[in-house]
Amino acid sequence: MTVPPLLEVEHLSVAVRRPGLPPLPILDDISFRLERGETLGIVGESGSGKSMLSLALIGLLPDGARAGGAIRLEGTDLLAASEAELCGIRGQQIGMIFQEPMTALNPAMRVGDQISEGLIRGRGLSRTEARARALALLERVRIPEARRRIDAYPHEMSGGQRQRVGIAIALALEPSILVADEPTTALDVTVQAEILDILAELVAEGDRAMIFVSHDLGVVAKATARTLVLYAGARLEEGRTADLLARPASPYTRGLLAAMPRRPDRSTGAGPAARLATIPGTVPGFAALPPGCRFAPRCADRVAECDAAEPGWRILGAGTQARGVRCIRAGMPEAVR
Length: 337
Ligand SMILES: Nc1ncnc2c1ncn2[C@@H]1O[C@H](COP(=O)(O)OP(=O)(O)O)[C@@H](O)[C@H]1O
Ligand SMILES: [Mg+2]
Hints:
This protein has a domain at 1-82 and 211-260 and 275-337: P-loop containing nucleotide triphosphate hydrolases (Rossmann fold). The strands form two sheets. An eight-stranded mixed sheet has the order 6-7-8-3-9-10-12-11, with helices on both faces. Strands 2-1-4-5 form a four-stranded antiparallel sheet, with helices on one face. The chain has eleven helices and twelve strands. It is globular and about 65 Å long. Helix content is 30%, strand content 23%. The chain starts with 6 loop residues before the first strand and ends in a 12-residue tail after the last strand. By secondary structure, it is of the alpha/beta class. The chain has helices at 50-57, 83-89, 101-104, 111-123, 127-140, 146-149, 159-171, 189-204, 217-223, 241-246, 251-258; strands spanning 7-18, 21-34, 39-43, 65-73, 76-77, 94-97, 177-181, 209-214, 226-231, 234-240, 314-316, 323-325. The longest helix has 16 residues, at 189-204. The structure holds adenosine-5'-diphosphate (ADP) and magnesium ion. Residues 50-51, 181-182 line the site of magnesium ion (MG).
């Protein structure tokens, strides 16, 4: 018998109900796999559906949202699970790290107690055992003077320390998957690097995987091995992060890349471009998607055929080099254009 993948998302769609109108599709035909020891980046401009996808994975879609397709965790379809089963999976098997830890933390509760709470409820630990474990978790996420800080309230901590506490809470029940939705977006650059280090360590331990969501391709480049590019609720490209950044196949990925600030080129000594390129226009509203490729109205490579029908998902190349792309014009790129 073959072992099912740790996480397998197949043809996931999400639509939200609207009074008197047909449901509004927000995610369309998303598929990917994730194995232990891997980090998958999900990148796209604001409004592309990244948070909706994260919430779907942990079974916390907003009221009125309906999911189709399958989200299989070691073979078990979460979309077919009852709320009671989902409660067991959330935290125990999938842990969530949010962008703004203050929203995930209880402002009126000491951080140590917030970490302990899940351990007492989820693992049946005694108060003393849970506190010892909470302390170990705070040390694991490198909170300085953890022994003292365990009794601090969230408002007494810096943004970076609060995010470490958020990670400790997500880790408490040793989930096999961490879903981190813009975990460093609210933090300044040095703190961001420290948090990325901690997250990388947690995945490098090998028995865990991470989904790392960001609007920032630069951060995704540092944090992930594979990347899924999301645009207006659809995947436009997927592949190994290093390959995808070196040789993007989709014009949208190329646009994101061109808009990314660069460090000076070591070989030529050239500095960053004086002006960053931007992709003209904005992500279309889900109620007004164009009839063909959803990126076509903003695409530099657009031809008449792009507007005729939405392109299907194609695989270019093979093996570890394989690249998925949803663009009729994309071929396997030889070099950065
Ligand atoms: N609770 C909700 N009900 C209906 N639509 C929502 C809700 N939350 C987000 N949306 C819509 O879903 C789309 C994707 O949002 P989101 O997943 O937050 O994007 P991202 O995280 O990539 O910025 C947006 O168009 C947004 O308006
Ligand atoms: Mg978001």
